[in-house]
Amino acid sequence: MDSKEFRQRGREMVDYIADYFENIEQRRVFPDVQPGYLKELVPSEPPQCPDSWDNIMKDIDKAILPGVTHWQHPHFHAFYPWTQSYPSILADFLVDALSSAGFSWASCPASTELEIAVMDWLANMLGLPEKFHHCRGAGGGVTQNSAGECLIVSMLAARHNALKHLSSIYPNEDAAVLLSKLVIYHSKLAHSCVEKAGMVLLIKTKGLDFDDKHSLRGHTLETAIEDDERKGLYPFFVLATLGTTPVGSFDNIQEIGEVCNRRRIWLHVDAAYAGSSFICPEMRTQMNGIKNVNSLNINLHKWMLMNSESSAIWIDDKKVLIETMAIEPLYLQHHLSENFLSSKKNWSISLCRKFRSLKIWAVIRSYGISGLQRHIRNHCKLAKYFESLMLSDSRFQVIGTVNLGLVCFKLKNNHLTEKLLSTLNSSGKMYLVPAAVNEDFIIRYVICYEKMNERLIEESWNIIRNLASEILNQNYE
Ligand code: PLP
Fold it and tell me: Which Gene3D superfamilies match (predicted)?
């Protein structure tokens, strides 16, 4: 493709994307295909000769779009949002064209410096303490691919500190023996990425009970720590979640932070979804206790209208992270990159990294803080509206507190709730996923669509209650 054709095809693609968004409501949310459907439509061998862009687009329509789950559909209510916005798409378009791998200052000065600037902007917008700001404290923020990666990075830094401490107490002990003493705690409602991180880093992870508000409390943590210390283990890291995946609940970081602070245990907060809501000052009470937190991650692509992957982590002591991760082979050195505090390769597992800060910058500027606040508040308000509709019907039970854009509910027993979920999903009108909380099978209704409104909420409610009536009637007969 030459630049002349690229200009034409680029314009066509922009129209294609705009048409997709304008007409998305007419599609099924979940595709009507079976596993293996693509085998029939895509040859098993790659082509020897060049194919035309027209043919590629025809096959996108014929083979690819029919197999897409439409995460941007108004009735996609599964998982958590995986957002995008026009400014973000446009900025990423340019990033893909520039294709520069900003791992050090010299590899792309603009990418390195803009990332520092936007991470401080975000820290400001979210009301994070000064210790997390590049320009004010000993810490700072950096983007990563995923919340799971953020967690691994903070666990690596904490593990580095813990092993240093243990080897000063047991200088003759083998590193593998010291590693086997380490233990991490989290609520049973924490995302599974903590167990994955433990598997990767060969560290024991323990899920702790939560209270009746689905919150991990300080006394539960302290009891677990004391038990394990008696067994000769070394608790060194706690993961608290603000906005758990199953029910959107908040661990009590005030209490947990006090326990961690007293015992010099690293406290990491996973606020992958809920973190974006702290842009609204009225939501920040959920962050009480943040001063005792060592690191925190947010997926900006979940709720802040930025395309994936835009995960962000802030850490209160960047030197520890860099001491853990820095490697400086000759081929990566440059006389103007000597301040390796700013070299992003020393902040993450992968060396090369996309110019993610450009879309973050573009979205914040295009929406402004007020536009992003409006977006979050709209989702929270509509979730409350959905909850009120549900509470008006005694056949439904709302589980947990509705603070965010998530409403969890069930029918009178697990069997009926499972039946309702499978009927809703196979109708193609809506897509939702379940969660397990204690003995309950619950359905999570998440507001993901940027332009959600009361009409669409009422439409959801009518679909859900009509299908529930059918199921309950069948069950009665
Ligand atoms: N943490 C929470 C609270 C989540 O809800 C999720 C995903 O939904 C994750 C972590 C995992 O995110 P990622 O896919 O970016 O690793």
Answer: Aspartate Aminotransferase, domain 1, dopa decarboxylase, N-terminal domain, Type I PLP-dependent aspartate aminotransferase-like (Major domain)
